[in-house]
Amino acid sequence: MEARMSFEDQGKDQPFDEHFKSVQEYLDYFYSDVMTKYDEDEGVSMPWILDQFHRTFAGERDFGNRLLDVGSGPTLYQLISASRVCSEIVCSDIHQGALAEIKRWNNGGENVFDWSTAVKYVSGLEGTGWESRQEQLRTAIKDTVLCDVHKYNPLHPAAFQQFDTIITAYCLEGACCNKGR
């Protein structure tokens, strides 16, 4: 009898895309030195991105409790500030391995990408302790679900109550650039 793989292990070793052999390789390439990496075109962009998410979610605006992140990929930086105000976060992506990485991180798994540098940065903006913020993020992430933005109902067959807030970071740009080719 064949042993069944947990969701967290499914997709872990499948190619992430045509450029990266795994989710871990993708994360290491783009996010290992996330706060200091200099890009010729963008400069040091991650602090600016985290500042924008902080400014968005730090105001008096009511975002409700339920947030859907469309195209999460294997990343969490976009959810750190949101988790302070949205207590129920659902991450979605077309790649099962990306979602499995989020699940492994959320469950405190071994050999997962370390997001503490980004959490510490946001905690500094908020004036909060980074460990409690990291735990708040883990608590807020309630589910991961497959999502295909090219479908009429992108989350099908999953069904959810209406979300109060929907965000996407570096997802729709990629999905739309190939549409119609």
Average pLDDT taken over every residue: 85
**Strand order, biggest sheet?**
3-2-1-4
**Silhouette:** globular
Terminal Cα span: 44 Å
Largest sheet: 4 strands, parallel
Characterize the quaternary organization of these chains. Answer: single chain
Tally of separate helices: 6
Order of helices and strands: HHEEHHHEEH
Structural class determined from secondary elements: alpha/beta
Helix content: 25-40%
Describe the structure.
The chain is α/β, with parallel strands linked by helices. It is 34% helix and 11% strand. Strands 3-2-1-4 form a four-stranded parallel β-sheet. Helix 4 crosses helix 5. The longest helix has 14 residues. It is globular. The chain starts with 22 loop residues before the first helix and ends with a helix. 31% of the residues are buried. The N terminus is likely disordered.
Nutshell version of this structure?
The protein has 181 residues and is of the alpha/beta class.
Task: Looking at this protein, list some descriptive labels.
181 residues; 4-stranded parallel β-sheet; alpha/beta
Task: Tell me the layout of helices and strands.
Elements: H1 23-31, H2 45-58, E1 66-70, E2 88-93, H3 96-106, H4 116-126, H5 130-140, E3 141-146, E4 165-167, H6 172-177
Parallel strand pairs: 1-2, 1-4, 2-3
Helix pairs in contact: 2-4, 4-5
